[in-house]
Specification:
Oligomer: heterodimer
Radius of gyration of chain A: 13 Å
Strand content of chain A: 15-25%
Low-confidence stretches of chain A: 87-92
Order of helices and strands of chain B: HHHHEEHHH
Strand order of the largest sheet of chain B: 1-2
Largest sheet of chain B: 2 strands, antiparallel
Number of helices of chain A: 3
Structural class of chain A: alpha+beta
Order of helices and strands of chain A: EEHHEEH
Distance between the termini of chain A: 26 Å
Number of strands of chain A: 4
Distance between the termini of chain B: 67 Å
Radius of gyration of chain B: 32 Å
Shape of chain B: rod-shaped
Mean pLDDT of chain A: 85
Helix content of chain A: 40-55%
């Protein structure tokens, strides 16, 4: 599975490792819903760390769509919330 | 993948797809899209260069603020030496008000620099991908039937659109951040120059400088006076500078004297 970390690039992650990533999804979503910046930051840090650890970087010359797109490491809770609210954060 | 990732991914993709328009004929799409990509790539590069320029300007601005903060400290020393504790307090208070914010801006500047480095790498990656797209589109045009081509095109197209959206967003983010920081640095600048006066020579002088200059000319007069008194054999042992300014200019810093 191809995973993009925004601002960083794409990683190819083994299907076997995907389950481990999924476990972080709920944590991150709960932190976002509770607007708990600290919990959000640590969950995001752990999640992105797992992607980098289990994934291989997709070579730059490859053109492939990602199945999953994750926020940038330095993205704040507000930025992610705005993105999810489809607030026009992405140009175009 | 459930929940958050899924929402995030689909929102991002919906936006990414609208970033590059498609033409009717898939083969036409390829050339058209490539042209568009080259344009966007230029835009991204300009964006990255703009961020670098703003960052450098911000660095200079912060240096200027630091110089001003140092000056305030010196003014505090001068004022204290002249026995004007009120004036010294005013200078140091003003300095303290900006120091914390400056430290914060320095931290942000370091983060911005790190982001800028990432942007440079991302724009290089984008360039590699655009180049890849060009090669791929020629292969697709030469080798595939229209139906097969459509699938291949979609894949390449989605891949590159995603990259463009990602980089575009990162550039925008960095631009917003620099703008915010510049506004803050500008506000600090104003704060430090509070009460700035334009003297007759046209140079801007802040109120503390003006008061200190007035003070030093007053104390020169006092010293001169004491010297004369000394010559007449009637001088006190120490010149009483501190008493004079309080009488001479109570209107200069009224809030500090209450």
């Amino acid at each position: 599975m191809i995973v993009r970390i925004m601002g960083e690039g794409q990683y190819v992650v083994d299907d076997a490792a995907v389950a481990a990533l999924n476990a972080h999804d709920a944590t991150l979503e709960a932190a976002l819903a509770a607007r708990d910046e600290k919990a959000f930051r640590s969950a995001l840090h752990v999640l992105l760390g797992a992607v980098r650890e289990h994934g291989q970087r997709l070579p730059d010359e490859e053109l492939a769509p990602s199945e999953v797109i994750l926020p940038a490491a330095e993205a704040t809770l507000d930025e992610v919330a705005a993105l999810l609210a489809s607030d026009g954060l992405i140009p175009g | 993948m459930a929940g958050l990732f899924k929402r995030m991914t689909s929102i991002f993709k919906a936006k990414a797809n609208s970033a590059l328009d498609k033409a009717e004929d898939p083969r036409q799409t390829l050339d058209y899209s490539y042209e568009k990509q080259l344009e966007l790539l230029q835009k991204v590069r300009r964006g990255v260069a703009d961020v670098a320029t703003s960052r450098k300007r911000l660095e200079l601005q912060l240096q200027g603020l630091q110089t001003q903060a140092d000056k305030l400290e010196n003014q505090g020393k001068q004022a204290l030496a002249a026995g004007r504790e009120d004036l010294a307090r005013e200078a140091l208070t003003r300095r303290a008000a900006v120091q914390g914010q400056m430290a914060d801006l320095q931290t942000q500047l370091a983060q911005l620099q790190a982001e800028e480095e990432k942007l440079v790498i991302a724009s290089q990656r984008l360039q590699t991908k655009v180049e890849s797209f060009r090669t791929k589109k020629e292969t697709i045009k030469a080798t595939y039937t229209a139906a097969e081509a459509q699938t291949k095109i979609n894949e390449a197209f989605t891949g590159i659109s995603e990259e463009f959206s990602d980089v575009g967003l990162a550039v925008q983010r960095a631009e917003d951040k620099t703008a915010q920081m510049q506004a803050r640095a500008g506000a600090l600048d104003e704060l430090m120059a509070t009460g700035a006066l334009t003297d007759s020579s046209g140079t801007v002088k802040d109120d503390i400088t003006a008061e200190l200059e007035r003070l030093s000319s007053t104390s020169d007069v006092e010293l001169e006076l004491n010297r004369l008194k000394g010559e007449l054999g009637a001088a006190p042992a120490t010149p009483q500078i501190s008493a004079a300014p309080a009488e001479a200019a109570p209107q200069a810093t009224p809030e500090a004297q209450t």
